[in-house]
Amino acid sequence: CVTMRLDIRITKEYSNEANMRSQRDVVEALAKEKGFTFHYSVSE
């Protein structure tokens, strides 16, 4: 199994909950499609 580390830094103007959720859903869907496990982190 491949582990893909994703450190995603989202600027303040894009860091509202809806955008965070939307981007996380896209990343999770891509990771599942590629068969990766990943760790998702957001820093402000």
Automatic annotation (TrEMBL):
Record protein name field: Uncharacterized protein
Species: marine sediment metagenome
